[in-house]
From TrEMBL:
Its EC number is 2.7.1.11. Homo- and heterotetramers. Phosphofructokinase (PFK) enzyme functions as a tetramer composed of different combinations of 3 types of subunits, called PFKM (M), PFKL (L) and PFKP (P). The composition of the PFK tetramer differs according to the tissue type it is present in. The kinetic and regulatory properties of the tetrameric enzyme are dependent on the subunit composition, hence can vary across tissues. Interacts (via C-terminus) with HK1 (via N-terminal spermatogenic cell-specific region). Catalyzes the phosphorylation of D-fructose 6-phosphate to fructose 1,6-bisphosphate by ATP, the first committing step of glycolysis. Negatively regulates the phagocyte oxidative burst in response to bacterial infection by controlling cellular NADPH biosynthesis and NADPH oxidase-derived reactive oxygen species. Upon macrophage activation, drives the metabolic switch toward glycolysis, thus preventing glucose turnover that produces NADPH via pentose phosphate pathway. This is 6-phosphofructokinase. It comes from Bos mutus grunniens.
């Protein structure tokens, strides 16, 4: 959805009624979608009805269809499942059942229906829409409604949201619930890994997904599984020998465990199911390994939704309301999807038909085509998995060498990116070095050549195994150049935050004095602050948001007993308000104060007054987020004193400074000096970016040292960008030779303007786009800023804080 002026939408829904229901299997994030549809509908002036128990409630009517108000969906964003219930309804599959459903909608004036469910639920909604006119005619002939009523409500508009943990719906990159299901799987894998290492066991994990292997594929990629079975890519004949050979080889090189992940719909080339029990018996019989089977089952549907699912659902819910308001009698039923990083509306039945084509391709054993039909993201993940897990080490060595180092504060995903880069380089025959302690370590010659198995087990480790410092290279230039020459390094891969970006620019600026620096230099953004110019998403920021979100959930829960309490929570991020903004949306905060959105004492006063009014309602709690450097004078202590004084006698106030919890948090585990990663930074993000550098040919045009010359393509940042045409500039640039001064591009280590800031106010739009390489010194004229393409505002006024 493009940014819009929400003030102009306040009355666009007047006189209209919207019904929302959830159907089919539940998925985490459905409640966030219901909440967004309800509050956006109320905001635009429409009546919103919650339809309980899915299509069954629609058919039965009565108390199953209730008009909602603003408070009806309060405090549900963090809940799993669906609070309005879901049920499979045989009655709705009959003409009589759909006629009863039509009568119940007409009685309440509902002609707009938002359906949250899988392809079966959405197909049923489309059939209902196509029959709507004839159903009303039958109701008129039966005398249940008048002809005038039938004319008034002659058209039914449908907007679908795909709620399914399987991510098996074509047309959308992610479905509601998929990311949360991956969190549950990774929690189990992390827990199993410790016991497997203790007893040198092999674990066979069966995950859900029906006939789609997305959950199995991404969890295998994120956990570094030894073997994977998915229905879209059955193993070749004789796979039993290959698998056992690989498991034995892994053990012979010192590994104490093996992980095999199998999708519940896995088959072989002949269409015969491959069961977890069969795989377990095979390993025991062939290798004699102590092997266990774990079938995850419905645990994958449970638990709280992740930050990604909360924001994705909120975004899609808002877009669904807009689609219903803009629909005409000629508009086909649509489904709101995520494409690249934009919410888009696609024809519902075209997407359903494409989804059926995938199954048809698998039935006809056109497996390569089935993978392509799943989409570019699925295909890319599959290729990365094959590269990192099954590609053999090249026997032919090249004379190309690569050095990898971490710079800045630790961030989740750093170790995953290092592992991916190391193995990608070695697989191509390159020499790979790792540098300890960043640029300072490079100056002190803390350089070590690594092998394939040196990075085994790094994937799920938090922090930085190499060590990382904020030191910039400017004061160590001579020694850095000397060690680059000593080890004959032809490329530098720098993984880190803003300091990594600035450090590479300093090296680029010094190329005129040192020919050794005329090599490829690449930055992979990795910082919880998400403040690196040119990228929408940095490794570690997703994990940090989830850490802050879980902490805020617990803080909100503590207020359920005390009542009349306001919490002021301070997040990290320096001058970049990404963490505060996105966390505020994910937890339904009352306000988020960030440096990029200036505020004054009048704004604070208005917020306190709003909080006072809020305490008169059923919701007697408040949550205010503050970025750590949002204002020089309005500190966390100042806000506490202000809220405490002005709210005296109405509410009390408490403060929480999350601090390094955002760096050391993990999925299900607390690890000192680092964090367990969420699936996003463990998986495709780190892998895709790390291998991108290796596409640079080691032979290029003649230049310094016979490898690379001083061109834009030798200084790049691997960005997670919008995939759209550039929208805004970072700011004024100042040339230093042929390079811009990073200090002129960015203010307070945060690029301006920020992509996540509000353009008009309202709710969140989260973009998760495609990887793209950009010249580091040309970012100022290409892409706006970090922040996930997100525009958001946590408002205090009723209707302003939509989520």
């Amino acid at each position: 959805m493009a940014s819009v002026d929400l003030e102009k939408l306040r009355t666009t829904g007047a006189g209209k009624a919207i019904g929302v229901l959830t159907s089919g299997g539940d998925a985490q994030g459905m409640n966030a979608a219901v909440r967004a549809v309800t509050r956006m509908g109320i905001y635009v002036g429409a009546k919103v009805f919650l339809i309980y128990e899915g299509y069954e409630g629609l058919v039965e009517g009565g108390e199953n269809i209730k008009q909602a108000n603003w408070l009806s969906v309060s405090n549900i964003i963090q809940l799993g499942g669906t609070v309005i219930g879901s049920a499979r309804c045989k009655a709705f599959t009959t003409r009589e059942g759909r006629r009863a459903a039509a009568y119940n909608l007409v009685q309440r004036g509902i002609t707009n229906l938002c359906v949250i469910g899988g392809d079966g639920s959405l197909t049923g909604a489309n059939i209902f829409r196509s029959e709507w006119g004839s159903l009303l005619e039958e109701l008129v002939s039966e005398g249940k409604i008048s002809e005038g009523t039938a004319q008034t409500y002659s058209h039914l508009n449908i907007a679908g949201l795909v709620g399914s943990i399987d991510n098996d719906f074509c047309g959308t990159d992610m479905t509601i619930g998929t990311d949360s299901a991956l969190h549950r799987i990774m929690e189990v894998i992390d827990a199993i890994t410790t016991t497997a290492q203790s007893h040198q066991r092999t674990f066979v994990l069966e995950v859900m997904g029906r006939h789609c292997g997305y959950l199995a594929l991404v969890s295998a990629l994120a956990s570094g599984a030894d073997w994977l079975f998915i229905p879209e890519a059955p193993p070749e004949d004789g796979w039993e020998n290959f698998m056992c050979e690989r498991l034995g080889e892994t053990r012979s090189r010192g590994s104490r465990l093996n992980i095999i992940i199998i999708a519940e719909g896995a088959i072989d080339r002949n269409g015969k199911p491959i069961s977890s029990r069969y795989v377990k018996d095979l390993v025991v019989r062939r290798l004699g390994f102590d092997t266990r089977v774990t079938v995850l089952g419905h645990v994958q549907r449970g638990g709280t939704p992740s930050a990604f699912d909360r924001i994705l659902s909120s975004k899609m819910g808002m877009e669904a309301v807009m689609a219903l308001l803009e629909a005409t009698p000629d508009t086909p039923a649509c489904v709101v999807s995520l494409s690249g990083n934009q919410s888009v509306r696609l024809p519902l039945m075209e997407c359903v038909q494409m989804t059926k084509e995938v199954q048809k391709a698998m039935d006809e054993k056109r497996f390569d085509e089935a993978i392509q039909l799943r989409g570019g993201s699925f295909e890319n993940n599959w290729n990365i998995y094959k590269l990192l897990s099954h590609q053999k080490i090249s026997k032919e060595k090249t004379n190309f060498s690569l050095a990898i180092l971490n710079v800045g504060a630790p961030a989740a995903g750093m170790n995953a990116a290092v592992r991916s880069a190391v193995r990608s380089g070695i697989s191509q025959g390159h020499t790979v070095y790792v540098v300890h302690d960043g640029f300072e370590g490079l100056a002190k010659n803390q350089v070590q050549e690594v092998s394939w198995h040196d990075v085994a087990g790094w994937l799920g480790r938090g922090g930085s195994m190499l060590g990382t410092k904020r030191t910039l290279p400017k004061g160590y230039m001579e020694k850095i150049v000397e060690n680059i020459r000593l080890h004959n390094i032809h490329a530098l891969l720098v993984i880190g935050g803003f300091e990594a970006y600035e450090g590479v620019l300093q090296l680029v600026e010094a190329r005129g004095r040192y020919e050794e620096l005329c090599i490829v230099m690449c930055v992979i953004p990795a910082t919880i602050s998400n403040n690196v110019p040119g990228t929408d998403f940095s490794l570690g920021s997703d994990t940090a948001v989830n850490a802050a979100m879980e902490s805020c959930d617990r803080i909100k829960q503590s207020a359920s007993g005390t009542k009349r309490r306001v919490f002021i929570v301070e997040t990290m991020g320096g001058y970049c308000g990404y963490l505060a903004t996105v966390t505020g949306i994910a937890v339904g905060a009352d306000a988020a104060y960030v440096f990029e959105d200036p505020f004054n004492i009048q704004d604070l006063k208005a917020n306190v007054e709003h909080m006072t009014e809020k305490m008169k309602t059923e919701i007697q709690r408040g949550l205010v987020l503050r970025n750590e450097k949002c204002h020089e004078h309005y500190t966390t202590e100042f806000l506490y004193n202000l809220y405490s004084s002005e709210g005296k006698g109405v509410f009390d106030c408490r403060t929480n400074v999350l601090g390094h919890l955002q760096q050391v948090w993990g999925v299900g585990t607390w690890i000192p000096e680092g964090c367990s990663l969420t699936p996003v930074p463990r998986g495709p993000g780190g892998c895709s970016r790390a291998r991108t550098l290796l596409h640079a040919p080691p032979h290029g045009a003649p230049g310094c040292r016979g490898y690379f010359i001083h061109t834009p393509l030798t200084r790049v940042l691997i960005a997670h960008c919008t995939g759209r045409r550039p929208r805004l500039c970072l700011g004024e640039t100042h040339a230093v030779g042929s390079q811009p001064d990073v200090r002129a591009v960015c203010t307070h280590k945060a690029p301006l303007p920020q992509g996540f800031l509000p353009t008009s106010g309202g709710t969140c739009l989260l973009d998760a786009g495609a990887h793209r390489s950009l010249p580091v010194d040309e970012l100022a004229t290409h892409y706006p800023a970090s922040g996930g393409g997100l525009w958001a505002k946590c408002g205090m006024e009723k209707g302003a804080g939509l989520l």
